[in-house]
From TrEMBL:
The keyword Signal applies. The keyword Protein biosynthesis does not apply. It comes from the Eukaryota. GO terms for biological process: signal transduction. This is Thrombospondin-type laminin G domain and EAR repeat-containing protein.
Length: 228
């Protein structure tokens, strides 16, 4: 960030990083090192079977340098989380000839990310990690199952060894999800994009933790909502 002659501060370009139809970017810190991952959706040669890239900040030059390639398929979302002493990177696969794809959770093995768990998804667009009563959860927003946008998004719960399916949530072409807390109560919101009845004039939804599961709290009028 630089200061101009009028006293205002502004950002200046530091670096260009190659990408192929990039749809997501995620930064995180592991053992004091800063990483940046770019999720590529589509390349010129292999279409949606294009790799995504992890970069690492080189402190002396203050530039990101190539660190690792992740073999990915039609990436639409990235989400990082640290659980205990473990580091995870969830990668949402949206489409590669089909919406029925296994999205991937990668785990840091001390030197690089390796495949930890595959989760069945339907046109996945977004992952969100969150904590509830000290338990760790991972939510995936599903957009389309190949036939309809009226598909279910899924909440997974960490059991100490892997992520297990905890609850399905009815969504309509979900393009985003987020979790938040108000007065010690946890909520999840989904940005709904489309369904066959309302088209793009579709309501997005907010769910509230009931003590055992998430229950629908409120619908909000949105128009082709993309993120929440």
């Amino acid at each position: 960030m630089r200061e101009c002659s009028t006293g205002f501060h502004f950002f200046e370009k530091v670096q260009d990083l190659p990408s192929r139809g990039a749809t997501a970017v995620q930064h995180f810190i592991i053992n004091g090192s800063l990483f940046l991952t770019i999720g590529n959706n589509r390349g010129d040669i292999q279409n949606h079977k294009t790799s995504s890239v992890v970069y690492k900040m080189d402190e002396p030059t203050e530039k990101f340098t190539f660190y690792q390639t992740l073999p990915t398929r039609g990436v639409f979302g990235l989400e990082y989380a640290s659980i205990s002493d473990k580091h995870f990177l969830a990668v949402a696969y949206h489409w590669d000839g089909t919406y029925q794809l296994d999205s991937v959770v990668y785990q840091w093995n001390g030197q690089r990310f390796v495949v930890f768990q595959k989760l069945p998804t339907k046109g996945a667009t977004h992952f969100k990690f969150f904590t509830l009563n000290r338990d760790k959860y991972l939510t995936v927003a599903n957009h389309h199952d190949g036939r309809t946008h009226s598909t279910k998004s899924v909440i997974y719960k960490w059991n100490g060894l892997k992520f297990n399916k905890f609850q399905e949530i009815a969504t309509k072409g979900a393009m985003g999800c987020t979790a938040f807390e108000i007065n010690n109560v946890t909520y999840i919101a989904f940005a709904n994009y489309y369904n066959s009845q309302q088209k793009h004039s579709v309501q997005s939804t907010v769910f509230k933790w009931s003590g055992r599961h998430f229950a629908k709290l409120q619908s909000l009028q949105t128009y082709a909502a993309h993120d929440s």
